[in-house]
Amino acid sequence: MNTFLTSIRRTPYQSLAAFLVLFFTLFVSVFLFIGLSFLYGLLGYVESRPQVTVYFQTKTLPEDISKIREQLINSGKVMDVKYISKEDAFNIYKQLNKDNPLLLEMVSADILPPSLEIYAKKPVYLSQIAEFLKKQPGVDEVNFQKDIVDRLLTLTDILRKSTIAFFLFLLFMSTIVLTTTTLFKVALKKDEIELMRLLGATNFYIKKPFIFEGIFFGLSASIVSFLILGGALLYFNPFLKSYLNGIPSLALNLPYYQLQVWPMNPIFLITSFTLSTLFGVGIAIIASLLATQKFLK
Amino acid sequence: MRFFNFLTMITFEHVSKKFPLGNVALDDVSFQIEDNEFVFLVGPSGAGKTTILKLLLREMPATSGTVLVDDIDVSIKKFGSPVNLRRKIGIVFQDFKILPEKNVFENVALSLQVVGAPTGQIKQEVKSALELVNLSDKSKVFPTQLSAGEIQRVAIARAIIGNRNILLADEPTGNLDPKTAWEIVRIFKKLEGKKTIIIATHNTDIVNSMQKRVIVLKDGKLTKDVRKGGYEL
Asked: Can you give the pTM of this predicted structure?
């Protein structure tokens, strides 16, 4: 503990440079992580909405709608087809307008159209399903969200690729800068390192203070960047709430776990902080090992 | 033929050291040093004294021949880590190699800290070592406040603590005036019989008056090895 605190005190500019580089890297990385998590959450949300909705004329019989539903299921292109009867539609209408009695009085189940909500297996099937439905008897209107899903998919893909590229650049840049600043520190202790080697110190014993210093910088940079980003998220929370009004929750689907992104919750914040800390400490340790290795050959 | 016996601490057997540019530092050197023996390694500059010390510490390998230190063959090409070997050896340098930002206690303690000794043991052994070199009252003093002789005594204290049963000294009096040099020699004398001591020097006064074993080197060759001898430049 004393060794690396002394080292920080003796090389304040190198220490500040190491801290600032790590802080910048972690700040940008956590910002990108939170941004991408929201975007993926939004994509998942849009994909979970009915992707094609077909409204039938009010006089269409449920049996005819049922036949079309079966044809859709048998096509192998849909994941699920949900039938919304006139009564179901009226219940939904009532729920949506529960605060407006005037609107409720004006509408009855008879005037609302029955519909089918269709979830396609792949976005590519959306237009084929829509074309099929338009040709069916009794169909009044077909709505599908191909454009929204496609645009979101493209945007997410571009952002994911550019984020990975930017992230790799940050990783490379911070490792190089940290290795160089640590090299300065190691060079200042060259005589001591040489002496310790002659006295029988292991390589790990010599590297240990530099590794601890790296862990200290990684941890402190992670804490500071997270406090600033956490504060910003809390500050903008009311704005996000109004912007995402109507979206109950957003989640990031990981291979074995679903991470809830919105509404803001402690698990998401702790996960972001943990990843940022591991990343920062990891870079700092790698830089320390690279710098000391040069003097221990 | 090996010169093995149970008292032998160091063995050089037909050892040569040639550097890549062709200069020969040691040429077919053979000798043995017994456990707790006191030996002067003498010769003019460039004779090969420091090379012998470096081979013992495995700072570099021998080009040919065998170097044994406490039964460890340190001359093999793929030696691995020299950590365990170096923990058996204390070393005193001509330029002291004392760390200026550490005080006397911390400089001496480093020798035990690097081997992971517990704090209690470090305190006790550093105290004893500082008593031996007459620096008990200066344990908290920094090297800038010490004379050259005192700094060299700190270096000796650092070299003797722990289970370091071999003490190598490379021109330990080279930077000291005659009076201070004798103070240092007296400390080495106190350690006689407790550790294997090898002092590389070209101080003829000290060598001749001590009447210890003298190994003389010239141009990388061993020219003389006498049990109780002197030395002339």
From this structure: 0.72
